[in-house]
Amino acid sequence: DPPVDEKTTNLVVNYSLAELRNLLGLGPCSSDGEFDKADCVTTHPAPLTMSDPLPDASGIQGQPLPELADSFRQTSTKLGFNVELKYPRETLLGKIARAAFLKQPINNQLAGPHSYFASINKFCDKILDTIWKHAGSRVVILSSFNADVCAVLRLKQTHLPVLFITRGGVPSNTEPPDMFHVDLRHHNLGVACSWAHVMDLAGVVTMGTLFGANTNEMAVPPEDSMQFSLDLAAKQLACFVYGLGVSEQKFLEKATQFGLTGLIIDHVDQYMQEHNMAK
Q1: What mean pLDDT comes out for the span 58-69?
Q2: CA angle, 81 as apex, 63 and 265 as ends, to 5°?
Q3: Which residues lie below 8 Å from residue 110, measured CB to CB, with a gap of 6+?
Q4: Nearest by Cα to 184 from 77, 92, 81
């Protein structure tokens, strides 16, 4: 928050007791102004369900997304967060490859290990500082597609689990590979698991396709999926999967068979409804 000066208008003294309690997510006080145990129950908006109306783009739902600190402050500590850190995919090797391709001089002006990791370090510090200050007692998981970001997050702290997100070699139509963004740690799931194991990460997040969720995208033999499963178990890595097909009832049996940790899906309420109907 900005420093307080003579132009500051949102001073605490300008708020009524009811307004302050509302800002803190607390229910209204009793009619006599006294607090009791029931008054101090924290209230938060109920989660959205499939039966809720579509968001109003011109209303509050159409406003810019809240910052991470605001998201923590405005939600219950019972709500866990997966904080996925977005960072440019270009690796240090990619920067050198780009310079060579453009026939630029390879000298000390080019990004090196020091400047490359200094930038990542500063970025991770900012995120972690926000979490320490505002997350409270809630469960927080850290994750990133950038393998170096995952490594830095793990080296900087051991309290929060870190997951390495990778397509595990499954090709993407929207992100064609090029020599500037090739990272061998994404070459296949086996390599990704080895990196996660070496860096003592908590696990990986990958495509359900690798475990038979969507055979149209990429056919993976069941024996290969089982080998992935055995490798994950041997390295004691958690594995969450996402993508087409993971929310289907028939994949739940495969996920159980392969010992997957969890599924990443949209519309949890709809999934639970379909799952309960199938029982």
Answers
A1: 77
A2: 85
A3: 95, 96, 99, 104
A4: 92
Q: Can you state the angle between helices 92-101 and 113-134, rounded to 10 degrees? A: 140
| CA 123 to each of CA 87, 256, 268, 271: distance values in angstroms, whole numbers, following the listed order | 9, 37, 31, 35
pTM for the full predicted model: 0.74
Which position has the token pair 């993407």? 172
Q: For residue 169, what pLDDT is reported?
A: 87
CA end-to-end distance (rounded Å), the chain = 51
Q: What is the DSSP letter of 185?
A: G
For residue 144, give the nearest of 134, 156, 136 by alpha carbon: 156
The tokens of 136 are what?
């409270």
- The pair of structure tokens assigned to 243 is 């993508």
Q: Which two tokens stand for residue 138?
A: 């809630």
- The sign of the CA dihedral 29, 31, 32, 37 is negative
DSSP H/E element including 128: helix 113-134
Please provide the DSSP assignment of 30-85 as one string: PTTS---GGGG-B--PPPP-TTSPPP-TTSGGGSPPPPHHHHHHTS-TTS-EEEEP
Cα 146 from Cα 179, distance rounded (Å): 16
Over residues 96-106, the pLDDT tens digits come to: 777 777 887 77
Q: How far is CA 68 from CA 89, 133, 276, in A?
A: 22, 11, 34
